Every structure is written in C-alpha cells, then in structure tokens.
Amino acid sequence: MTQQTPLRRVALTLAAAGIPVLPLRAGKVPFGNCRTCAGSPPRCGGRPNMKTPGPCQCPAPCHAWAAATTDPHVLTSPPWDAAWRRAAAVAYHPGGAGVTVVDLDDAAAVAWARESLPATRTVPTTRGEHWIYEGTVRSVNDVRPGVDIKSSKAYARWLGSGTGSTAALPDAVRALVVKEPPTVRRAPQTLIAPLRAGQGECRHRTPAYLERGIVMAERRITGATSGVHATVYQTFLAVLSTHGRCGCLTDTHMQRLFTAAQAKGETARHCTDAWTNALTTLGL
Q: Where is 141: in which H helix or E strand?
C-alpha cells in the first residue's frame, strides 16, 4: 500500500477543490524534467517552452507549472508518489485555479499594496504576503520593486488558505502586466537563438569547465529571490561572454538555462529576448 505523505494529502485536498497542484523540491523549485524532455529537441507530448498549455505525457512531474494537475490518479501514481516523498512543498498553478497571485516580496512591497490595491484574501509568506484575486492575467516578474504577478503559466507555493475574502482582479493589477519590458531587438518566440560564432569544442576551456559553468548558472537563476529578470539576463551575459565566441555552447546548454529561468516564472519570449539582448550587447 502506498504511504500517504502529509504534502500529498494537502495536494489531494486542493486537487479535489479544483486547484491544479505539483510538488516542489528544496529551494522552491519544481522537479527537473525527465531525460527525454531534457533532450534537444524534446520528444514528449508537451513542450518545455510552455507554448502549449497543460501537462506533457511524461509519467512523472515535468515541465514546471505545466505538470500541475487535479487528477488524483496522477497524483498518487508511483512516479509522483516518489516525488511527494522527496518534496519540500506543494505548489499550484494560479491560472488553472482561476486566480492571480500578487507576490509581495518584502515589507516595502506590502506597504505599497495596502496603499494601491483593494483588500483581498491575504496569505503570509516568509518575507511578505501573497494577495489573491479572482481572475487571471499573464504572469510577469518584477512589475515593480519586490512585486511579481503569478497567474497563467506560472506556479506559486501553497502556504495556506489565508484570511479575508477574495476580491475581483482590479484594473491596477491588470495595468502592471500590460507594459512590456524594454528589449533591444524583438526575437522569434522560440528556444533557438543561434550564435554567430564557430562550431566545435571550446578551444580555451575543458568540457568539465563548461559543465561547471552551466551548473553554476542554473543555480544562480534558481536561487534568485527577487529581480529574476535582471538575474536571468546577467547570467546569460556571463555565460555568453565566456563561451559565446568559441562555439562550445549547444542548444542543449541553452535549453537548460531557459528551463531554469522558466521554473522561476519567466516566459519563453522573455528568455529569448534576454538571450538575444546578451548576444547584441556582446556583439555576437
């Protein structure tokens, strides 16, 4: 008989209420994509760039927010059961539940919300608060200092039901996600943004050095607690400044960085824009 873990009990309760859930591992990040999906190109039924809503066809939690489900059979299947035993928290897909989370990361952001937004259901977090509104919008990080918007194609930690009544999504929140972040050059919405340098093995670094660099870059993105847009761009810039001219970077390396960024709530378009802007800055 499968052992029922406390986190999975919470997940099943939420799923029964129509809230799509997924497990998070330590560091508040989803479980990594399976080997098939981590390949380039991926070969599963969904897409890691998350242009296609809904979960992929993998038998285990995969593709961050797109893994979220309300299906109790999936949540209690053996691959997912193993994930729940290793999980550190429960997350949910706000957009799939029909809500928007205004993630206030610090006291200053909370003070701004109390002055600028209508009262709604509030959930305390480690350093700030989640304000929950009825209705959905696209998800955007860093809409103002210490404020992220999590709704469609994003995930948020489940920290309890909170207090207060859920208000309708106000125009003030909708306005925060309308303005596009500035870009140097519009890029296609694709994970492929090829370098203009030569191909082949890096001539000045060993493969092990490159691998360590990619792992460190993934950790830097994953560990970002605020300023995710800026962290992603600076990380892409650092990787490309070291390896962008010698041709050692592959689509697989780029996809790993994009996957880490998307797990923090970035969209495929924002990842592509950040990558393209870094290429432009470096003259590649």
A: strand 140-144
